[in-house]
Amino acid sequence: MIKLKENSAAAEAHFIKIEKPLKQRIKNVLKNGIKKDGNPIAPDTILRGYLKHLLTGDNLKQLILLKPESIHSTIASMKKYFPDFFNSDSDSSKILYNIFVASCYDKTDVFSKYDFISGINIDTCPYCNRNYIYYLSKKNNVKPQIDHFYPKAKYPFLAMTFYNLIPSCQTCNGLEVKGELDPVRKGLINPYLIENDQFLFSYKPTSSGILGSLLDKHSVEVHLKAPQGNIDVFKLQELYNLHTDHVVELVIKSKIKYSTTYRDYLEKYKEHGLVFSENEIDRMILGNYTNVDEIHKRPFSKLYVDIGLDLGLIK
């Protein structure tokens, strides 16, 4: 898992794009209700009051731009005053789903997943850092993946809240992984709230023959320190156990003093006017990004950084 940085500019741009259609939909629902399975549903007094509240002042903007650390407390408050909103079978929940999901999130002419993900500017899945987040142009058939950290079926009023929308890979966003699991019950930590030192890799040799075969991926074990809820839901320990070959290669580099030799080799290029920064040298030694602000750019970068530091390949 890698930390996502708050992006106020992207969040503001997101709100600007959806503000007008969202407000118009709320007004239409207040006037006409919705139709569900051919049956008209009108908002009751409590929901009507909440929807009018969203149309007042900056209240809708505050909902869409809720800070990551404020979402949980907002949910707790909403459950206290609007318990019906959390019952997916209730009319109130169905109306909220229609407003925020069916009439906004699911409408490509209202909400562009491509624009949203490209605006956040992250290249790998923050849940696992194993896979790229693929998005091309709007005309290509590569579907961007966005996970609702707080599932839209359970929390429809948060379906368009910026920091609840997490770019993710198809694996982590799949029904057999997180799906509609409730992060409150599962103890998950939002990528915007996790710290880098909460998510650390280490390794343990399983035999003395680690140098014997570059192909023996079973000569080491990967150990992962992370919030247990994230490990369990995203099956991170099991998945990273499939990639111990990356660690084996780093261990071999450390045993043959690869980093010292290669670092000295690159330093010689200064004579020819080609100067590498320490960060660039570290990146070439590991074969992956090492700067904390760049580890999202390539899969397994967090694994490489943690193991590389442990082995002394980088400082």
TrEMBL record:
Highest taxon in the source lineage: Bacteria
Protein name listed in UniProt: HNH endonuclease
Organism of derivation: Chryseobacterium oryctis
Lineage of the species this protein comes from: Bacteria, Pseudomonadati, Bacteroidota, Flavobacteriia, Flavobacteriales
